[in-house]
Amino acid sequence: MTSTAHKEPVAVVGIGQTKHVAARRDVSLAGLVREAARRALDDAELTWADIDAVVIGKAPDFFEGVMMPELYLADALGAVGKPMLRVHTAGSVGGSTALVASNLIAGRVHGTVLTLAFEKQSESNAMWGLSLPIPFQQPLLAGAGGFFAPHVRAYMRRTGAPDTVGSLVAYKDRRNALKNPYAHLHEHDITLEKVQSAPMLWDPIRYSETCPSSDGACAMILTDRAGAARAPRPPAWLHGGAMRSEPTLFAGKDFVSPQAGKDCAADVYRQAGIADPRREIDAVEMYVPFSWYEPMWLENLGFAAEGEGWKLTESGVTELDGDLPVNMSGGVLSTNPIGASGMIRFAEAALQVRGQAGEHQVDGARKVLGHAYGGGAQFFSMWLVGAEPPTS
Amino acid sequence: MRPPIRDIAVVAFAQSDHRRTTDEVSEVEMLMPVLHQVLDATGLRTSDIGFTCSGSSDYLAGRAFSFTMALDGVGAWPPISESHVEMDGAWALYEAWTKLLTGEADTALVYSYGKSSPGSVRDVLTRQLDPYYVAPLWPDSVALAALQAQALVDAGETDEKALAGVAARSRTAAATNAHAQLRGPGVPQGDYVVQPLRTGDCPPVGDGAAAVILAAGDRARELCERPAWIRGIDHRIEAHSLGVRDLTDSPSTRLAAEHAGAFERPVDTAELHAPFTSQEVVLRKALRLGDDVDVNPSGGALAANPVMAAGLIRIGEAAARIHRGEARRALAHATSGPCLQQNLVAVLEASEGSEGATR
Question: Domain of life, per the record (chain B) (predicted)?
Fold first, then answer.
């Protein structure tokens, strides 16, 4: 029997991001992460001395060519003399990192923790980093897009979704990004026609329906109840968080709607007391690196019945002013520092319930889901944050 | 660190035989028997485990996302609650420990593995260094350890004869460790690799895997006759640049030990992750270990040093001695980074009232 009655409530009291761009040639890796951490501390009105531990995450070390970079980054993140953990769970890592940090508080090991995720893709080449040939294993020669395109095609066949749905998502997310000063892609002249006439990369995924390669970092300050009481701005409260994993490849795997994603969402909803996610959750920051993953995840996360996700997207429900806004920040489609992308989803969810999301704020957002996935759609991490402290 | 709010113990430990090369098996194949062994020891199956966490390094494997293949070996179906640190498995154990503290799980499987044989681990580890100013010079791990050893000699903390004594003692102890790679009293101290370190002062290069099962409270008592209770565990990091550190000392080890409660009562056993003889000198001082403490009865990292697993093995070896009734209060230590940059200390104890208990 598990017992969670003694868990300390966890609050997000500081959030910092860098302006995400294709190449931050003006800063080192250390400079990049320090910038995000500094902004998170400023938001929480705390100093480095207030931080008890640092939990850092990023995607593969090959993306920058630095093995276990937490060792080199210890000084830049004020971690000297403190505990420092490095999480790596592929594309879901930004979310997992925040959850590992939250456990340090929930388990009453520490009072205030800095968590940060980053990627400086310009230091290397992600396509190359994912394509190293290894004996007995199929290399991912076409990068992530080549791996995921067949699963998008399977979704279209299975649900009968018209082939225009993906472009609607891309058009929406890129317009949302115009309201987010930290977003990488600011395409002021974007039109639906431009998205639909973009070159086909991995059929059915067009160039404008794919994520960019970004340099960027995202940081959060997590704290306990006492820390939240001292916070200068409204905290976001953690109501539920979970990770789930399943194998990469096996005959029974459903790549369109992986069981690990369903189980992860169900665990989060159980913790948060959510019976009907479509009615009780106000907005979602969802990991959508290729546009079609919005309708796919709407189903996987329980916001739509199987085969119906594309109808929510098509009807405008997921627009910024819709009934269930998705990726108000512009999402991964507009900003993708891979290792940080999951944490940005979690942080943007927290910004929404704190009422601090600026131009892309959803009015009255009280409960928002942050979602991340990684590997061959096999690693999932999610959290649900609320404007009020959890009751149980 | 505050006192843990839940009693958590190491209830099972398994490791592979550590070998210079394992060309004939993949990482998953190397890991699988260890996972089966540790599960069999408790009678648990993958589906019974509340949380799983692993430690490994893509740079050793030579490919991105290398840990995903290892997860396939765990049998993660139906889907499991799982995470991974790109660190030694000792830190995966720390993450699992915090997860059990939250009460969201009662049992955890922790594993780690590393194959150093496919490349030159001395060169690979240079990629851990400051990528702009230091890594381009390719200073290898033995050269950096030699700087530390020379600093100790210069400070009068040790000499080459004493270091040779550490090497001989470790490998003699390893004679009774069937998993060790370099075993028995006959291992020669050899020539200089990088002065003042000789072959005997350096760890063997090898491949290996390890796994541990943690359990909380009554679950631990059900699964193990003599659980090794984690009385405290903490880890600390130091500055990266060697130029700003006193290489003859390890303040992060001392701090971690304080927070883990290591100094509250004496320990009878210590498993130290000291890949180089000179590092044992530094750690003994930081941890205030007297001659009455049995240090590295397994032979330590000088007998087998599978990178990314060697730290977890220290915790496992310390726990196994408690399981067998050979130790009552043991300290386990893991390290990461050049010249002991990051250090973890765990204090393990036999149960109150059980055979061999001190409390």
Answer: Bacteria
